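Sialate O-acetylesterase domain-containing protein, Digitaria exilis. Tokens?
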Amino acid sequence: MKPAARRPLLLCALAAAAALSFLLVAPPPPLLSSLLLVFPASPYAGSPKLLFLLAGQSNMAGRGIAPSPLPPPFRPHPRVLRLAASRRWVVAAPPLHADIDTHKACGLGPAMPFAHRLLQDQEEVGSGEHPLVLGLVPCAVGGTRIWMWAKGEPLYEAAVARTRAALAAGGGTLGAVLWFQGESDTIELDDATAYGGRMERLVNDLRTDLGIPDLLVIQVGLASGEGNYTDIVREAQKNIKLPNVVLVDAIGLPLKDDQLHLSTEAQLQVGEMLGQAYLKYKSSTESRQ
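Tokens:
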């Protein structure tokens, strides 16, 4: 049973989720495909990629203001791609969710600094014969509560469909789910207290439906909330009782004037933390093999 939508903002999120699910589950109509040709294709589109699913709400989609010129960690790189809404691999350039989270003006999020951190690591250790190609799969939608990401709901089904399409379009492996969500679950006490159980079900469902039992999920601990129950959601995030669920904490990072969305500087730091968390996990698993 879904909790009642008590605020107009939630109705906007529901509309966005419905529109996103239609766009992402069904093949794009011809007119939309032609409009999306403005995104440049990549010569690495057919190459095997290390994929990352970007999911959650507005702080994952990105609301950071883009300065001019862009700081280097946010700039496009030929080996960092994103799966557009048309399911074409294109060169990743912010805002990554421009054709996904279409009901809001998207800005800078953590995914580009995350990707640059992984490329930097490969350059430091040596690229070998096959340079690393990263594939980002944006699916985040602002204003969404975690029950809207449950199995059977439009956002969940769209995320699974896009991830499967990404794996089929050029091949590769899914490295992790990057999850930044929960600010909207701080409004109602029922949502906040149910957060931990819902998150664990989400992780288990993704692992089952994507066929990756040990899929890594890196979640970002909340830096802010829309309501009075942020501490309850944060405690739930810290106490997920599943293996291979890692937390990086955004608490204390600078916020925009709305005191909800992370600043550009903060998004840069979150991307760096996500990258370090993934590399630490990768190193630990390789050492056990």
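Confidence is low (pLDDT under 50) at residues 1-6, 22-37.
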